[in-house]
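Handout, section B. The chain below has 150 residues.
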Amino acid sequence: MFIIRRSQKGDLDGVKALIHQADLDESTVELHFEHFFIVELYEKEHQTKHLVGVAGMEVYHSYGLFRLFILKKGDWNGKIGVQLIKILLSYAKSLRLLEVYLLSNNCVYLFKQLGFEVITYDDLPQELDHIKWGMKKQAVPMIYKCYKRE
């Protein structure tokens, strides 16, 4: 059984190890760790939990940036992945964020199904200039509008 919960200070080392294994940048993780969610695999017979995934976002004023989304390959489950994205979007709304941004390499269709729209790098807020490295990797910038403006 999978458990998805908010991160706690004691999770930081395990999350950094997971990020390192995925060969991703961990430079801003500590600054935004309060906005991360942990995925654990609970083994009922042994009464143990193992960290198998993490998802989180950076929060800037009225918008967020999906910062990372990692699930170990052996534990990957599309249903869990979608549930995790929905939890992050619900969390963004609870923070009253207006928009959530992300860069997608190969899941554009999935994110469109969840309400995201493709945008250009020029459409990104100035505070997100640090993610323009994605242009070099041909990552697609996307936006989710938490509250539709009338």
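Note. Strands lie at 2-6, 36-43, 48-60, 63-71, 99-104, 117-118, 140-145. Compare this with the example in section A.
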